[in-house]
From TrEMBL:
<keyword id="KW-0210">Decarboxylase</keyword>
<dbReference type="GO" id="GO:0009089">
    <property type="term" value="P:lysine biosynthetic process via diaminopimelate"/>
</dbReference>
<comment type="pathway">
    <text>Amino-acid biosynthesis; L-lysine biosynthesis via DAP pathway; L-lysine from DL-2,6-diaminopimelate: step 1/1.</text>
</comment>
<dbReference type="InterPro" id="IPR002986">
    <property type="entry name" value="DAP_deCOOHase_LysA"/>
</dbReference>
<keyword id="KW-0663">Pyridoxal phosphate</keyword>
<dbReference type="InterPro" id="IPR000183">
    <property type="entry name" value="Orn/DAP/Arg_de-COase"/>
</dbReference>
<feature type="domain" description="Orn/DAP/Arg decarboxylase 2 N-terminal">
    <location>
        <begin position="23"/>
        <end position="267"/>
    </location>
</feature>
<protein>
    <recommendedName>
        <fullName>diaminopimelate decarboxylase</fullName>
        <ecNumber>4.1.1.20</ecNumber>
    </recommendedName>
</protein>
<dbReference type="InterPro" id="IPR022644">
    <property type="entry name" value="De-COase2_N"/>
</dbReference>
<dbReference type="GO" id="GO:0008836">
    <property type="term" value="F:diaminopimelate decarboxylase activity"/>
</dbReference>
<dbReference type="InterPro" id="IPR009006">
    <property type="entry name" value="Ala_racemase/Decarboxylase_C"/>
</dbReference>
<dbReference type="InterPro" id="IPR022653">
    <property type="entry name" value="De-COase2_pyr-phos_BS"/>
</dbReference>
<keyword id="KW-0457">Lysine biosynthesis</keyword>
<keyword id="KW-0456">Lyase</keyword>
<dbReference type="InterPro" id="IPR029066">
    <property type="entry name" value="PLP-binding_barrel"/>
</dbReference>
<dbReference type="Pfam" id="PF02784">
    <property type="entry name" value="Orn_Arg_deC_N"/>
</dbReference>
<keyword id="KW-0028">Amino-acid biosynthesis</keyword>
């Protein structure tokens, strides 16, 4: 990215998230083109980066959305995503969320248990509506990724086993209030190998065949998200190899192919800018203390995730340093043993690949205000979320001084 980091940091302050919208467009187009010749929808996984401007940008390109709360469904609709391209997933949907999703007439609710199916049926009956549903199948495939972001094994809480799924489809097909239109799996995140996706897709496509054989006509085949991206030097999955595997698995079936990329779309569109506050040495160990913290970007603390870190425009001999934030936790770091030149107060540090699961996982821990977000598009920058203030943070708290 050819950007004047220093100028942006000065204009908007730090800590700051920056997203390259041209990159996002490029990612969307690359993936969509890889589905050429087939009916397909790219359902952007809103939880990766749910800024309304990011979603609206994808909506204009024709994307759908994969949402995991009614709040995300509202964001998708507000940002202009077509309601018939919105899926509502998640293991724990509340009654009010189910009701609103049905009233908003989105494409389908993705069910993750038999109990949830019965709930959805009940709510649909109350509303006198038919609920379009898909069922999330847990194909028991090891995605070979970080255990925290693996979701396709029976030991994970997600989805239902094949046999259970089949029983649920038969039940739903008979129900007056359920319309089983889709099938879904999502085996994990940051997948860099195709074989687990191939295996899962084959298993689930076989289930589709056996359902079609008993006149249950599945129309949407949703392969979930999880395409891995390059944070460091990973070799990951190409869009065309990915779709080829899906095409092979679904050969001979008339289906609309759906996928739900989150990280793939936005991770490397984003960078996190933070400013050096101090350098210090503890028993020979070098620390660079910056003005951003784990509350802004928690991936290193939570998953021990690697993010490339650079000092902008600073020369000098590089020595290893831990880049840490001001939060009162030892786990508050962005990188360990990062080679960095000698740094001074106000030098800018860039944490790369921060566009996915960055801002959306931010919190107010330590009463720290959430950072601002900026979009870069066609060489222009624009603020897409203001920096939070102290007042924003305390606004919802009630009377606290004695009368
Ligand atoms: C999180 C999630 C995604 C997106 O995962 P990425 O790794 O960001 O692509 C897609 N589908 C479901 C159901 C999810 O929970």
């Amino acid at each position: 990215m050819e950007i004047d980091t220093k100028a942006l940091a000065k204009k908007y302050g730090t800590p700051l998230y920056m997203y390259d919208f041209d990159y996002i467009e490029n990612r969307y187009t690359t993936l969509k083109d890889a589905f050429a010749g087939k009916k397909s929808i790219i359902n952007y996984a809103v939880k990766a980066n749910s800024n309304l401007s990011v979603i609206a940008h994808l909506a204009k390109l024709g994307a759908g959305a994969d949402c995991v709360s009614i709040g995300e469904v509202r964001r998708a609709l507000d940002a202009g995503i077509d309601k018939y391209k919105i899926i509502f997933s998640g293991v724990g949907k509340r009654d009010d969320e189910i009701r609103e999703a049905l009233q908003k007439d989105i494409l389908m609710l993705n069910l993750e248990s038999e109990a949830e199916m019965k709930r959805v049926e009940l709510v649909a009956l109350e509303l006198g509506k038919e609920a379009r549903i898909s069922i999330r199948v847990n194909p028991n495939i090891d995605p070979q990724t970080h255990p925290y972001i693996s979701t396709g094994l029976h030991e994970n809480k997600f989805g239902v086993e094949i046999d259970m799924a089949k029983r649920m489809y038969i039940y739903a097909n008979k129900s007056e209030y359920l319309n089983p239109v889709g099938i879904h799996f999502h085996i994990g995140s940051q997948l860099t190998k195709l074989s687990p996706i191939r295996e899962a897709a084959m298993i689930v496509a076989d289930l589709v065949r056996s359902l079609k054989a008993i006149k249950i006509d599945i129309k949407f085949f949703d392969v979930g998200g999880g395409i891995g991206v390059v944070y460091d030097d990973e070799v990951t999955i190409s869009a065309t190899d990915y779709t080829q595997v899906i095409f092979e698995a679904t050969k001979g079936l008339d289906l609309t192919l759906l996928c739900e990329p989150g990280r793939y779309m936005v991770a490397n569109a984003g960078a996190f800018f933070t400013k050096v506050l101090y350098e210090k040495n503890n028993g020979g160990k070098r620390f660079v203390i910056v003005d951003g913290g784990m509350n802004d970007l928690i991936r290193p603390s939570l998953y021990n995730a690697y993010h490339k870190i650079e000092a902008v425009g600073v020369e000098g001999e590089k020595t290893p340093a831990d880049v840490v934030g001001p939060v009162c936790e030892s786990g508050d770091f962005f990188g360990k043993n990062v080679p960095l030149p000698p740094l001074e107060h106000n030098d800018i540090i860039v944490v790369h690949s921060a566009g996915a699961y960055g801002f959306t996982m931010a919190s107010n821990y330590n009463t720290r205000a959430k950072p601002a977000e900026v979009a870069l598009q066609n060489g222009k920058d624009r603020l897409i979320r203001k920096r939070e203030t102290y007042e924003d943070q305390v606004r919802l708290e009630l009377e606290y001084l004695e009368k």
